Amino acid sequence: MRAGSKKHSPKKIRIRPGEPDDLDALVALEREVFGNDCMSRRSLRRFLGSASASVLLVERDGCIVGCAVLLFHPHRVTARLYSIAVAPAMIGHGIGTALLDACERAAQRRSRIEMRLEVHEKNRRAIAHYRKAGYRQFGRHIGYYRDFGDALRFQKSLTTGQTAAKLT
How far apart are CA 12 and CA 17, in angstroms? Predict the structure, then answer.
């Protein structure tokens, strides 16, 4: 990258926990990113108030430009990245990388040693991003999405940065 390039510098971003007052902005971001296949307002409200979930938001210049929902089963050492979204205008600015890193740190703070996620088989950009971040594919859900596309399952050990050998 050339000196002075700002493409991958997430300038003036803040990552913080989601709050009930963020609900309208979260719904709007979900619709912008996922269209008709987005989470419902009711689901987002539930995640914002759940002890077994964590909603992380990325703000840039006072606007929410990214969000992630992490799930924590009380009897497992694995965290699940349920959803991650970056505003289309912010793709390529390091927002997704910063958000994924924050998710991993949040999972570690909850004593999780592994993170798992699903991604649509056609989402090549996200798949490449997860692989670059150290995630390894371990499975597939056939016909998982509304369009009957398959979900590729990925995982990463949060203790060594490598894929855990044993599934939990």
Answer: 17
Handedness of CA 46, 33, 37, 167 (dihedral sign): negative
Cβ neighbours of residue 25 closer than 8 Å, sequence gap 6 or more? 63, 64
Helix (H), strand (E) counts: the chain: 4, 7
The structure's pTM equals: 0.85
> How, if at all, do strands 78-86 and 63-72 pair?
antiparallel
Task: Say what the pLDDT of residue 160 is.
Answer: 64
- pLDDT attached to residue 12: 85
pLDDT digits (tens, 9 = 90+) for 31-44: 999 887 789 999 99
